[in-house]
Amino acid sequence: MSTISTHLRKIREPNKDEQLRQSFALTPAPDPVDVDSQKYKIEVNATLSLPQESEEEAYAGRLYLLPPYLAFHSLDRKSTRFTLPLCTIRRVERLNTRTGIFALSLSNWHGMKIIVQITSLRPTADLFCAHLRDALKLELQRGQMKAMKSFVKTCYSETLIPDNTPAGTEDSELVQTEDVAYLCGLGVKFKFPGDPKKLREASKLKLWATYFRTHGRNLTLLRYPQSTRLVQVGLPNRLRGEVWETLSGSLYLRFSNPGLYERILKENEGKVSTSTEEIEKDLNRSLPEYPAYQTEEGINGLRRVLTAYSFKNPELGYCQAMNILVAAILIYMSEEQAFWLLEVLCDRLLPGYYSPSMHGTLLDQRVFESLVKKCLPIIHDHFHEVDVQLSVASLPWFLSLFINSMPLIFAFRIVDCFFCMGPKVLFQVGLAILKINGEALLEIQDDGAFIHLMRDYFGSLGDSAHPNSSDPRTRAITRFQELLLVAFREFSVITEETIATERKQFRGDIIHGIESFSKRASVRNLKDLGNFTKDQAGLIYDILYKAICVVPPPASLQGGSGSPNSGQGQVAERPETRIGLATFKIFLSEIATWARDEKIVSNGFQERVDREVADHELIDRIFFFWDSSRCGALSFQDLVTGLNGVMFNDLMANIEWFFTLHDKDKDGFLTKDELLILSESMLFIFRYEVGDAYLGAVSRFMTNAFEYGDAIHETERLKTSGEAESEKPQELGNNQPYLNLATFRMVVLADEILESFFETDLTASFQLQSIPDGPLATPKSGFFGGLLSTIVTDDNVKRFHKFSDDLGKTIGQHQVVHRPSIGRIDRPIALQEPKAREPLLSSTSPRPSVSSASSSTVLATPSNSTPSLSISPPVPEKDVSPPEITPLYHAAAAAVMERTPFAIDDPQDDDDDDDDDETGEGDTHNPDDKVMDEVLYDCRRTRCG
Amino acid sequence: MADGAQQDKSVQVKLVLLGEAAVGKSSLVLRFVSNDFQANKEPTIGAAFLTQKCRLEDRTLRYEIWDTAGQERFHSLAPMYYRNAQAAVVVYDVTKAASLEKAKSWVKELQRQANPNIVIALAGNKLDLVQSSSPPTPTSPSFEDDEADDATATPGETPDSPEGSTNETLRQVPTDEAQAYATEASLLFFETSAKTGEGVVELFTEIAKKIPIDHILASTQGAAGRSGAAGADGQGNRQQGINLDAAASKGKDACNC
């Protein structure tokens, strides 16, 4: 079983646009419904101020119109920020102030005014206004303004600050929606963790209420420095869910996708997938000590959120640790809120953490280690010295946001900061933990001691950080407060940019590591290596991987980790990767020389090999031949077994392989049709061979095969039906058993070229070569690497080739030659002297070739309707020009088929024609085919021996 | 040899548990370490770390147990935990045939990637589900007496199978089959039940017997900068100052009589 995933290759660093959107807590790409409105996108320099605040409170920054949002950040990018949905803006006024100043006053739904003074040049400012007006109109048309009114009712802040209605509009409607209660989490019913008094719940709520009045709330929240301070002291329990939503931006998702959560649940009701089974296993194991998770209510909510997400994002599905996160956030928010917050977590805040390869987790662990090395070198060196891995402790911190490492009340405060200030918080806190425990850490000698130390420390977070201090106020500082202080003071140097830079630096390594890990695992898990070494199997894997990169297998072939399986779900934990025919063609073209068309192009400037994937029924045939489980798709194991079946064969085994390949019903006989197809396959393989030696061989083969086939059939008939009816020939359908392996073998061995082909060339045409790093190789780091990878794209290479070809054509240097698949004849020789075939014959044939008729006559024979001519002697080629393969082949094939009834090929007539055949073929015309068979075979063997 | 010397001769053994999700890895450890069973254990994120002492005739082993996450996607993290491990328990669920396949692939991986001298044991867990109500039968009574009160005594009978229908029909992995595989791959083999405790002590005791302790002693000594790697046994009592302290202080929480 091996699962091969190429999705890591598609990962790239977010571009500027995406980074910008992310900094405003928006999805990297605009919603599909908003694509049209993106034409209004514009940004200007602006200064933000609130009318009730003094002049000093104005922030210079940049204002962005990102329909359907208006967003602003101050110049330092952190002190002030807002992301306002356009539908919350009720009124925009141009302020009549001093000349030369262009200021807009925006009043929003919560009756609050903000003033933005646009400091860009006048034309830009005018354009901005025009765009803003159009974008606002569009939002109005979409009815978002109305949707917003009922939406904000779901937020607790509306209840916290009643009477927010802007001057008496649409009162009736509001009364109607009054009963839409705000959304809340399990904590309201099952209590929030921690003592509300100790947490000073009431006074925190008051502070927030004040802030909300002046700076907006939920959809209209402005993020001023004060809000960050309020978050850092810990959010009040009742408000926590909503503020998480707002800060993380999941609020915008919930707003723009109303009802989606319920819809996903409904559409997938009763469906079972790998993910749902994994979820089921963990439901009772998610914060089991919290009372709600000992009830059906809590468990069901948890199940619904996790399941809905696994259906929304089947590629990710479900990862352990998500259950803990969701269980935690459900204490503070409703299922729908939790669902969208989970989306933001998996998608944006913790990218790749929970993906099947967990590349994000591994990457951030590496980043964390690197930061420890930079910030706490002594600890890093000590760990290195005693061979302790940081990740053994830090991995769960990141993966479950400290929720199962620290007591819940502290973990939630870190989560507060995480949503407010971003993923850098995890690194800052992690570093602070190590720094605070620095001395003790230098004492540890092994992983175990490290874990113990951390566990003890987390257990003591509620204790005083300075128990021996005489000052009661100092004594009151808990170790947790100390932790936050260290994290945000001493490690404020760790910014989002730091993290981004570090991630960029290590991403390639991590991806490479994961890929080679899964390669090793796949090779190791092969049930049967055949005659291949592990390294060779590794090469096959590489080639398969490359093929999958080019043509990913269709989704229907993937058992689909988490993909919804209708009806009874497939239980395999790791679905096996199977490739379809399209991918297989690419795969085979990398291995078999004849499964690709290689053109050697020289145009005076360069000589290159253009490689294209060939398409022929033979390849389809091999695909189905190797499909051991008859499911229309091949696994890695199938490919290894299949290749093993041909790459280590000797002459006889190859003949048998080729025979069986074309014996569709596996009854040990080829029908006439199959025989023709077989010949066609051979011609396909030989299509680029120089000269017509191979063509001749195949046509001789056909003639012989039909000759023998008829002979055998004749005797069979005679034997079974008695001599009496011998004069009445019996028709044999084209799809009835006709030629058996023994005869086939005999016919093949009658020809040196074919013999040589089956003895060595067929096997040799399968070549395992290590391929250079895939076409989508991980981007090189560094400026030049990046520059290079942007210039050297596939398209550009093609364009360059085309250009040089055109140039070559104009100067008459353009030349295209097909590279032969077998290539027994050296290319240069072949090019100069296309008719030189002697080396081929003499090198492969130990016996002297005797000729009496040219191959062209052989080909012509059937159409001449001289049925008596059967065996063509080995080829003399001197006077034959290289024929066009396909038309000629068809002519020959048609002619052969026309030869019915075959029975008139009276065996006795044969003697007349091939008088001088010395290799024993003459014997074959003896009606007694059994003897003939023996003789020929013996003859061969003695010759070979 | 004095008693004191024997007591001090605590050898640290790193043991890692591997196996498919929800086969009962954590429960096995919990049974071994705390002689306890919880129906709902939080899934392991990354890995959990526990310690337990295990006394053989003349010496004490201190198991450092890394209990890893079972979900497939955590697989790539496993090498972090099994590197340098001296022992591994690969767990499967006797009622799930697929879990044995996964176990086999773990064994393969360990044999190729882990410490070459690693002692691997195969444990078929959830034996209680396939037994009607027969009492657990200790397989190595000679050690049972010694160990029973120390840490991992087989608990009193707790035949609390509510369904009552638990019997051999649930079994998907025949004992013979697993045994044959274990023999072929030269693994220790036990069928266990974390719920009833059956086979758990035996499992860890047999591993302890198979660990090349002298070898470990020698190597840790070497690491500690001592030269006397030769007669590791004899010098056991005056070696590794730090480790001894650590072991002694940790003894308290590890022992759970």
Structure explained in plain terms:
The complex is a heterodimer of chains A (945) and B (257). Chain A is α+β, with helices and mostly antiparallel strands. Chain A is 52% helix and 8% strand. The longest helix of chain A has 29 residues, at 496-524. The radius of gyration of chain A is 39 Å and the shape is elongated. Residues 166-178, 559-573, 723-729, 774-782, 826-885 and 898-945 of chain A have low confidence and may be disordered. Chain B is 36% helix and 18% strand. Chain B has a six-stranded mixed sheet, with helices on both faces. Chain A binds chain B through residues 1, 278, 281-282, 284-288, 319-321, 323-324, 354-358, 361-362, 387, 389, 391-392, 395-396, 399-400, 404, 445-449, 451-452, 514, 517-518, 520-521, 524-525, 571-574, and chain B through 12, 20-22, 39-47, 49, 51, 64, 66, 69, 71-77, 79-81, 84, 98, 101-102, 105, 108-109, 112-113, 242-243, 246, 250. Chain A: Residues 839-863 have a biased composition (Low complexity). Chain A: Residues 922-945 have a biased composition (Basic and acidic residues). Chain A: Residues 906-921 have a biased composition (Acidic residues). Chain A: Residues 650-685 form the EF-hand domain.
